[in-house]
Design brief:
Strand content: under 5%
Order of helices and strands: HHHHHHHHH
Number of helices: 9
Shape: elongated
Keywords: Membrane, Transmembrane, Transmembrane helix
Structural class: mainly alpha
Pfam families: DUF6766
Helix content: 55-70%
Number of strands: 0
InterPro entries: DUF6766
Number of domains: 2
Length: about 220
C-alpha cells in the first residue's frame, strides 16, 4: 500500500518503541520485585508497577535526555556549523531553511498563510515542542526518582525527603547526567563521522562520491 510506504519510517520506529516498552515493563517488573524481595517490600503486579517510582524514573530519565538532545540539536544547528558534515548547514551560503516563508507558495501550511503571531510561533514550533517535551519528561523523571528514593528510604527505616530537598540530591542529577552525556556523544559522533563516512541511500549521509569538505546532504 502507498500509505504504508509513505509512512513506513515512523511506523517501524513506533513498533520498535512499543516492543522496547513491553520489554522494559516485563524485565523492569521482575527486577523491581527482586529488589522488593531482598529489602522486605511488597511485590507488585504489572498494573501497580506502572505507577511505581522505579518505572516512572527509568522511563522518563531516558525520554528527558532524548528530547534535550533533539531540542538543542535543532536550535544549535540554526547558527553553529561543522564544515563537511551532512548534519550542518553550509557556512558559505544561505540555505533554503533560512529564507522567510512565502504565503503564496503552493502547498504552504495555514499558519504561513495566516501570518502574524501564529506564523511567528509556527516558525519556532519544532524547538518549542521539543523543549516542552524535555521539561515534562524532566519533571516526570524527578517525580519518579523521588518516589523511588523515598520508597527505599522507608524500607531502610529512614525518613523520606521532600521535593525541595531531593532536587539537590546527587542521585537524581547522576541519573540525568549519565543520560545526557551519552546523547551529546552520539550527536558529536554523527556530526564528525558524516564528514568522512558514507551510507548509500540514507538522507543522514552525503552522497558516496561527495568530497569530505562538502557540507550538508
Amino acid at each position: 500500500m502507498k500509505w504504508l510506504r509513505n509512512n513506513s519510517l515512523s511506523l517501524v520506529f513506533l513498533m520498535l518503541f512499543l516492543f522496547s516498552m513491553v520489554g522494559q515493563s516485563i524485565t523492569g517488573l521482575k527486577q523491581y520485585n527482586e529488589e522488593m524481595k531482598e529489602r522486605g517490600g511488597p511485590q507488585a503486579t504489572m498494573g501497580k508497577y506502572f505507577s511505581s517510582g522505579h518505572f516512572i524514573e527509568a522511563t522518563f530519565e531516558n525520554w528527558e535526555s532524548e528530547f534535550l538532545q533533539m531540542a538543542l540539536f535543532v536550535v544549535l544547528t540554526m547558527f553553529l556549523y561543522q564544515k563537511g558534515s551532512s548534519e550542518s548547514k553550509d557556512p558559505e551560503k544561505k540555505e533554503e531553511v533560512d529564507k522567510e516563508p512565502n504565503p503564496k507558495k503552493k502547498g504552504a501550511s495555514w499558519p504561513v498563510k495566516k501570518g502574524g503571531f501564529i506564523l511567528a510561533f509556527y516558525k519556532h514550533s519544532l524547538s518549542i515542542a521539543l523543549f516542552v517535551l524535555f521539561l515534562l519528561s524532566f519533571f516526570a523523571h524527578f517525580y519518579g526518582s523521588l518516589k523511588n528514593y523515598n520508597q527505599h528510604q522507608l524500607l531502610k527505616g529512614l525518613s523520606a525527603e521532600a521535593a525541595g530537598e531531593y532536587i539537590g540530591n546527587s542521585k537524581f542529577w547522576f541519573e540525568s547526567f549519565q543520560n545526557w552525556q551519552s546523547e551529546f556523544l552520539s550527536v558529536f559522533a554523527i556530526v564528525i563521522l558524516s564528514i568522512f563516512l558514507r551510507q548509500k541511500g540514507s538522507p543522514q549521509s552525503k552522497p558516496v562520491d561527495a568530497p569530505d569538505y562538502e557540507t550538508g546532504e
